[in-house]
Structures are given as C-alpha cells and as structure tokens.
Amino acid sequence: MKTKLKAVLTLLLVLAVHLVYAQSKSITGTVTDADGVPLPGVNIVVQGTTTGTQTDFDGNFAINVAEGQVLVFTYLGFRTESRTIGSSNTLNVRMQVDAESLSEVVVVGYGTQSKRLVTDNISSLSSADIADVPTPNVFNSVAAKAAGVQITQQNGKVEGGLNFRIRGQASISAGTDPLFVLDGIPLTNDNESNNGSPSNPLLTLSPSEIESIDILKDASAAAIYGSRGANGVVIITTKKGKEGRSSFSLNFSTGTSEPANKRDWLNAAQYIELFTEAAERSPFGDLSGSFLEGRFDRYSNGTDWRNLAVDTDWQELAFQDGSIRDADFSMSGGNSKTTYFFSTAYNDTQGIVRGNELDRVSGRININHNFSDKIRMGMNMSYSRVNIDRIANDNAFVTPLQAIAQAPISPAFLENGDPNPNTLYPNFLLEDKYAYYNTIVKRFLGRINFEYDFTDWLTFTSAFSHDLFTQTEDQFRGRLTPFQSTNGEAFASNVDTENYVFTNLLRFNKTFNEDHDVELVVGSELNKSKRRATSVEGNQFPSDDFQTVNSAAEIVSGTGSFTQFSFLSYFARATYSYKNKYLLKASIRRDGSSRFGSENRFGYFPAFSAGWIISEEDFLSESDVLSYLKIRGSWGKVGNAEIGNFPSLNLFQGVSYNQRPGLQPTQAGNPLLGWEASTQTDIGFEYGLFDDVITGEFAYYVKDTDDLLFAQPLPGSSGNPNQNGITRNIGRLQATGFEISISTKNFNTENFTWNTNFNFSKNDVEVKELPDSSDVIFSRNILREGEQINSFYLPEYAGVDPDNGDALYNLNDGSGGTTTNVNEAERIVAGRPLPEWIGGLTNTIRYKDFDFSFTFQGEWGASIYNSGGRFQSANADFFDNQTADQLRRWQNPGDITDVPEARLFGGNGTAHSTRYLEDGDFIRLRNLTLGYTLPQSIMDKLGMTNVRFYVSGLNLLTFTDFEGYDPESRSDAGGIGQVFYSAPAARTYSIGVNLNF
After folding, report:
1. What domain range is 93 assigned to?
2. CA distance 882 to 405
3. What is the pLDDT of residues 91-138, one digit of tens each?
4. Torsion angle of alpha carbons 134, 137, 140, 142, nearest 10°?
5. 722 shares its domain with 857
6. Which CATH number characterizes residue 219's domain?
7. By C-alpha distance, which of 700, 897, 707 is closest to 802?
8. Could you tell me which residue ranges the TonB-dependent receptor plug domain spans (predicted)?
9. At which of 32, 62, 97 does a domain end?
10. By the number of CB atoms within 10 A of the CB, which of 150, 460, 528, 915 ranks highest?
C-alpha cells in the first residue's frame, strides 16, 4: 500500500513539474532609460519568488517566466517598474528617473555628498526640471522651483538682465548676484552693455547641456567659496557620458510669443475729448481754441483729426509677434575606460518688442578617460556664440515702448511708407528703419582635470580652467534717425575678459571600524582675471550705405582700458558621520584679493554645521508614520568682493589741458578697505512620512552683513572729483526668514503617477546701521535704520477733493491735514521693492504614455513704482496719450474718484508720490507641458528607443491687481523697484519632439 501511494505521489509531482514547465516560457527584452539609453545591471525578479536575472552591458535580458506572473525591475536612481507577462515573448521596458533618488547625491563645493548626510541647506534641480521650457534664458525655467530663490528676467527683452536673489539682498553697494560655478569654473558674470540697459552674460548657457543645478543657500554650504559666497552659490553641472552602448538624441521645438499683458490706452476720439476738456480747464485759461487746434493739426500731420481720419494704435506697433525655435543634438556613450558626451544646440528667438532678436549656437564635448585603476583625466570644453539685435533702454525716446506716449491722431507712416517724423515725441520707427544696435557674445569654457589615487582612500586632483568671454557691440544711426545732427554716427566696442583658475585638491575618504566615516578635503586655488576694453565713435558718413567707423569723416571719441584682479585661496573641509546618523562638518577658507587694501588683503571664512538623523534611533526606527527625520544647524561666514577693481587705491588718469598732457586724481584710496562679510545661522529639519510618500524640509535663518562696502561722499574741499566718494566698510544689514518645502507622491501605480512639489519662503532685509545713523535718500528710495532695504520714500497721495477736483497729499506732520502743494507734504516710507513672500507649486503627472506638468509661481509683499505714471496716467497734464483709467477723472463737484480734474499744464497730482505706487503681488502659471511618448512596439518598428511629442507654454496666466504691464518687469535704465516703459514678459507657446536612438 505504501509503495502504491509513493508511486502516485511521484506521478503527481512529475505532472505538476511538467505542467509548470509547460506554462513557463522564455521572455527576452531590453531595458532603457527615458532617453533610450540601455541600462546594464538592472535587477529583474519574478514577484514572490527568488527567480531573477540582470540586464547585460547592452541592457538585454532573458528569463523563464509563466504567463500571468509579474516581473519587477529595479535600478539605482530609477523608479521601480512592474510588468505582467502576457502572450508576447518580448518585453521592452523604459525606466523613469526617480528625481528623489537622484537628489540623494548633491554637488557641493569641490565635490559631492549624499543628500541624506548633508548638514547644509542646498536646493537641487535636475535636467528634467529645466527641460522643454521655451526660453533662451535657462534660469527662466528654474524660477519657483527652489525655496528661498527669486529669479526674474528684468523685462521682456530677449537679452534682459537677470535678477537672481538667494534669500533676498545681502548688500547695498556691492554685487548681489550669486557666484555661478560651471563644472568647477567660476563664471564671468559682469554686465558689459554700453546702451544703458544690462544684458545677461549667462545667455551663453544652453539648457540641453545641463545635468543638474545645485543652489548653496546657507553660509555653511557657501563658505568653501569664501569671499565670493555671500550671495549664495549656484553650481551648474553639465552632462557626461555613461558606460554602455552609444546613444543619440535629437530635440526640435518651435513656438510663438506674445506680450504677457497689454494695457488699454485712449483711442483718437477719447484723446481729443480728454485734451479738449483739459485745455478748457487749464490754469492758464481756456486753451481749447487756436492753441489746442494748432497742436492737433501738428500731431495729425495734416490729416483730418476732426473726423478721426487717423487712429493709430502705437502699442501694437511697439510690439510684434515673437517666435522661438530650438534644436539640439547630443550623443554619449563609452566603455569602462572612456566615456564621452557631445552636444550642439541652436536657439533662434524673435522678441515681442519690435527690433529685438537673438540667436545662439553652442557646442560642448566632455570626455573622461581611465588610464589605469589609479590615474584618470577629464576634459570639458564648450563654445557658444550669441548674436543679439538690441533696442534702446527704457529711458530713451527711441525705445519702442515709449511710443505709447504718442498721440493716437498721429499717423505712424507717411503716404510714401516712410516713418512719420512729425510726431509728439521722436518716432521710434525712424530708429527701427535707419539704425541698428548689434551685440555679439562669444564664450569659450575649458577645463582639464587630472586625478591620481594614492590609495583607495586618498586622491589627488589638479584642474586648470579657462573662461574666455568676448563681447562686441556695433551701433549705427543714420542721418534720418531722431536727434541726429550729423550725417550719421557709428559706435563700436570690444571687451575681452579672460579668467584662469588653477585648483589643486587632496581628498581623504575612509571608514573606520564600519561606523566612523571621515572625509577631508584640502586645497588651494589661484584665480586670475584680465579685462581689456576698447571703443571708438565716429560721425559724418558719406551716406547711410557706409555703416562702420572706418567710413566716418571724423573720429569724435575713443576709449581703451586694461584691468585685472586675482584671488589666492587655501581651503579645507572635514565631514564626519557616526553610524550614518550623527553628522558634523567644518570648513575654512583663506582668501587674498588684489581688490582690497594692503592692511586687509586676506580674510578668513570659517563654517560649522551638525546634523542628527533621529529616525535612525531605535525608538523611531520601527515607526510606521515617520520614515525619516533629520535636524540640522549651521553657522558660517562668507564674503563679498564684487566692487570692481582697485577700490582701495589712489587712482589718477591722464588728461589734456590746452592740448598738453597732465594728470588728475580720479579716486581716493583707502588702504584699510576690507571684505564685506556675512555671518549666517541656519537651523532646520528634513522629514519623510509614510515611507517617504510625503517628504519636506523647513529652515529658519538669520544673516548679518556688516562692514558694508559703501561709497561715502567726499566734501568738495577734498579736491577729489570722483562723484562716488571713497569706498569704506560701514553699515550693517540683517536678513531673516524661513523656508518650507513639501513633496508628495499622491499616486504611484504602474499606469498612473502624480507627484507634487511645493515651496514657500519669507524674507526680510532690515537696515541695522548706517554712518552716523543718517538716512541715505536716492531717487524714490531710502536707506534708514530699522526699515527694509531700499524702501520707497514718497509723499503720500490722499486722493481727490470732491469739491474742486484738486489732487491732495497728506501733510504727515501730525496734524492729519492735507495739501495741494506736494512740497509741503512730508515723505513717508511707503513700501518695499523686494517681496516678503515667494512660493512655487509644481505638479508632475504621468498616465500610461502621457505626461503632464505645470508650475505656479507667486510673490507677495513687494511694491512697484511706475516712474512713467506721471506722464502716462496724469489726467491730461501734457499731450502724452493716457491710460484708459483717466476717463474716470473728476469732472463735477461731488464726484468721488481717485483721478484728479484734467488740467492741461496744471500739474494736478502729477508729482512723484504714492499715487503711482502699486502692490506687486501676483500668481503666475509659469510653465506647462503636455507630452506623449509612442508605445515601445511602435518605436521598435521605427528603430528608435524613445519618441516623445510635447506642447509647452511659458507665462501663460497671471493673476494680479497690478495695473502696469507686468508685476515681474522692472526698468533697465535704473531705479530700484521701478518700471518706466518697461516691456512685459513674453507669453510663449511651443510644440516639440524628442527623438532618441
């Protein structure tokens, strides 16, 4: 009986094994990343079993599995993928980058570090965060994605200067931009524009070549850069080749642009009505007769203004339909010895303001080679050329946006098609037709680095870097351009800046007794920079066909200069962790700079930080709610050296007196001049909840900046003609604020994922000390102890007297009274030019082969002063066209309105005051992208590894009460927190395709 039972059981077992074997089959396929690059070493496991395999060097795999079973694919830095086996014997998987996993390694000064073990405040962005945004300025795509970081382009011009603020403004007179470091090279970031408005020297960067952007925000992170870290540090890392099969990528996009906002201006009928009324009520008597009609006859240039023969929309002429085209190609690959990355990119952008265009060509090659297990070398090289057709600055009559001041009864063109020269103000169309201003920027960046491993824990690195920045500007203004008193004039300039950096590092990295991890970096760095600039101007040309200075009959001016500076630095940093939960870091840098006085040429910049990963403790390690918790704190000192060259020296220059050479003093020296220093304390915590479904960070900081580099005026009796006075270390600022970041994985299934990232921050920068506690008043701003930096300081507008239409101003003398004379009104601190609150919200959604993402940006608390308001919204004080809100002017006793009575030449309410100060709060849909990736089966037939189509938009919606063009734009001709005929941002729509093979 037992023998029969044993035989039966054996037979059943054989049948079961045979049945399982009959149902299983061999599945083959390839695993790639989102760009189609094969991934070697991907772990593949049959769910619920120990059966598994890995992909080979080319990303291929084969495994026996039954239908209905699930294969699980895991790979470091990528999201886990699951696939249920069907009837097909082929399975190709495309794995998506896990942004959180990638951010586990962040780039710090002179190295990298695990995000988990970082004790500093660093915001990290990957290439995915800046992809597919239609803009030539790479940092426009970064806005709203990092807590405590405010990024705005100055205005809607394609080359508009960049405002990049990390935790507010840390200086008054010195530079306020962060230090930009590209692959270890401190970038030249000086504005070299000669047309009165700044240009953005970082336009030479192409988004397609960038792998990551790490923003060092606190002093502990930035102190390793010492004297140049006071405004934070932005570390840009370019893409590198990966070991594996060669891959190729092609990306194309094209789109159109329009102004993000337009304003309502009076048409011809409204213009005539308003100014007729204003002339009748002029304080100089009724001017509505022959005087007014003579003016209308002149502005209409002989056309019938009475019957509205001309109704010119000057705003439409100032703007144009813009466009943007992008194309880039890259290839990468390598083996265990050598990896390479090559890319080239092209951008062609036509701006939204007439006559404003840009095109950029760039190329990059990054190569790394292992000569042996101990010796490695790498080379990073790039070249870019940016060609910009520019327009005049905001304060020039010939800039297109000032055309909105023209009378709508004026024809823009004559009957023969030429621009009309007989307008209220110079017709910008004459400048547009008979003049040009061209800027070409060329940049070469090169870095060669050598690494030698003495042991597996001691490495020596030496690197030499070169940044060559060249800019040429050429301007020609023909004989028919406005204000031209000669037969044409031309201007040409050339600037060459070379920056050399020689860096040597010794890195010690070792673990003792499995629990003690120690890393020590010591190094030295020599930075030399040389700048040579020349310019020449000539006039009197034989005709407008000759447009270079060479054809000028008279050379009227020429300049030439050469300047240089150097930094010599020594630094060290030590990090220590015990059991990967108790964390310490200390660093120090000694900087010497030629910019400072002989008594204070060297400065020391120390920093300390500590962290505790509490979630690793036994009492929290088994928590089902709290998956990660780290508290950290830091203190550090950083400096600011952005004050130009030789401010500590007594300077002289050659002059001509009665055609004889001479010398005159140009600058009073100060041998005691030293660093502007910022000390910063930062405390915060990072957390993860529910297995990191929710993660976040909170930080609070206090940053004191003292020994401010301040230009103190000199008395006339000093005999020094320098208007900027003498540069001294005086004054103190204090910035305080907090930052909140939250990331959530709302859904995470095979076919549907939805992630949200939110950041919000508050910042205040208060003036703590000034020389002799005295106010410093300039234009419409003030520096006053106890107030926010550069606060607005203006007479307070009190509205309109309903009895007679007079504009009123508060006396602010304690009486509570008002006056019609603005000179009797005391100024008040009326607002701040920098926002108190900034925030961003990004959502990323994927459903099968569709992806969708959008970012909202918000700013609150800033005020904006419209310096052009006293011309644009002046209740017909002069003949400038007016904003449509002036139609609600006071007309009869008892009228309740905020627009005074229209009085030609009356100056009724047109003085600088809070009448033209507005809140700049806004929420903007910064960018939006919708994409579709072809199914793998179709791509296999096409021989492609990835094909993705997408549509994208920039600055699509803006929610604001600001009545001007744009709450982000500011004047490019000076004035803090002010707009003056400033162009709005561009709203851009584009379509594109990503091809990988």
Report:
1. 2-97
2. 7
3. 888 887 665 544 478 889 899 898 889 999 999 998 888 888 888 888
4. 100
5. yes
6. 2.170.130.10
7. 897
8. 116-233
9. 97
10. 915
